[in-house]
Amino acid sequence: MSKSCKGLAMELVKCLSETDCVKVQKRPYKECAGEKAPNITSECVGLRETYFNCKRGQVDMRARIRGNKGY
């Protein structure tokens, strides 16, 4: 279960690496992931929300019994 969000994490990093926040401003991924929509694309915002829900599902006891809604 610990690796169920790994695919989402890799796609989020890939998406963030193509944004101006990382390319032009040369800021770390962690800072850019917390940015609002003007600095990063809506696709990255959607991936960030999906990744957050995946990580939250790992802690939720109901989801642990049923299994995380994997990627």
UniProtKB/TrEMBL annotation:
Claim: Protein biosynthesis is one of the keywords in the record: no
Pfam families: Pet191_N
GO terms for cellular component: mitochondrion
InterPro entries (alphabetical): Cyt_c_oxidase_assmbl_Pet191
Keywords: Disulfide bond
KW Disulfide bond (keyword) present: yes
GO BP annotations listed: mitochondrial respiratory chain complex IV assembly
Family: Belongs to the PET191 family.
Name of the protein: Cytochrome c oxidase assembly factor 5
Gene name in the database record: LOC123104439
